[in-house]
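anyone seen this seq b4? input:
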Amino acid sequence: MPVSKMKFIKRCAEFIPKEERRNIPSNTRGIYLLLQKNSNKDYSVIYVGMARGDKSGIHGRLNSHSRSKSKGSSWTHFSLFEVHDNISIQEIEELEGLLRHIYRYDKNANPFNQQRQYKKLVKVRDNNLEKW
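predicted toks r here
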């Protein structure tokens, strides 16, 4: 069996126009970002989300966001990161929690990422590097 190039991520697509979401296979599991294109190569992260793939996956989540009154018009592009088949739902949730935790104070991402902090990450936090 060939060794995968990455442990969690099977494949990714970045900075894809919103209209191309229809090409994503159903039940694709992983993490996705809603992006607002600002200039030629400048994007703002609007939202970080996850799809477990048990109902519609990333395709369905993006369709839902496009119909949303609050998020629908705010994003122009997306990026997606599909996880390997052996990655559990809990591992997907941890990846999403980490990314949302990182973006929680970003002035552009914060309005739609209501999560203030990822509680599991707070439990392992130790800012006293001298004890590491």
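The first strand starts at residue 9 and ends at 17. The CA atoms of residues 25 and 114 lie 28 Å apart. kinda curious what u guys think
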